[in-house]
Amino acid sequence: MARDLAWALANSDLIHDRATLDASIAAMAPAIARDFAGDVPVFLTVMHGGLPFAGRLAMEVGALGMDLEFDYLHATRYRGETSGGALTWKHRPATPLRGRRVLLADDILDEGHTLDAIMRWCRAEGATDVRIAALAVKKHDRCVPGIRADYAGVDVPDRYVFGYGMDFQQQGRALPVIRALTDEALREL
Ligand SMILES: O=P(O)(O)OC[C@H]1O[C@H](OP(=O)(O)OP(=O)(O)O)[C@H](O)[C@@H]1O
Ligand SMILES: Nc1nc2[nH]cnc2c(=O)[nH]1
């Protein structure tokens, strides 16, 4: 059922505040700068949800003297719904990946199907190394085997979350916090 953002805010709990999220992104940067020292990776933002996280992460690694070549892709399997389906590619990066190292930036690693497909595609394009930076990792045992975030910000509970790029029915992506819908509210949708 369609609901507005005010309903989602009233039927959710704060999971991580802005200061915690910003600090978790800053904390990822030194490991990235160390692991990619001497390289300029292709920095692929996974739209739409990865946008706020990727922008902030780029500034953090840039402040450490590391450069990134920006590009983006859009692959979606939720399409504004609260459970995932088949993955649809809406945009593929134009930058040739052959021989390049790639850093993917996405808002959430949940069941891992999205990042699994993206990694496979990057490797098929000839990328030599593909790593994942994810702002949030959902805690459950349903993730695709072998998929993990090389750089992870915060854990989130096994509930539907939104904010900091993540949508509630395509709303709320600009919230600077992460909230989780109550399970009762999720059942109402
Ligand atoms: O680990 P998974 O279970 O595959 O889910 C994670 C993906 O789901 C979300 O994208 P979504 O399909 O909602 O597209 P959007 O970012 O455009 O909203 C999110 O941005 C991740 O890319
Ligand atoms: N907004 C949002 N997108 C997701 N994609 C995968 N899991 C989630 C989630 O909990 N919230």
Automatic annotation (TrEMBL):
One of its GO terms (biological process) is GMP salvage. Its EC number is 2.4.2.8. SUPFAM superfamilies: PRTase-like. It comes from the Bacteria. GO terms for cellular component: cytosol. InterPro entries: HGPRT, PRTase-like, PRTase_dom. The lineage of its organism: Bacteria, Pseudomonadati, Pseudomonadota, Gammaproteobacteria, Lysobacterales. GO terms for molecular function: guanine phosphoribosyltransferase activity; hypoxanthine phosphoribosyltransferase activity; magnesium ion binding. This is Hypoxanthine-guanine phosphoribosyltransferase. It is an enzyme of class 2 (transferase). It catalyses: IMP + diphosphate = hypoxanthine + 5-phospho-alpha-D-ribose 1-diphosphate; GMP + diphosphate = guanine + 5-phospho-alpha-D-ribose 1-diphosphate. Keywords: Glycosyltransferase, Transferase. Residues 21-142 form the Phosphoribosyltransferase domain.
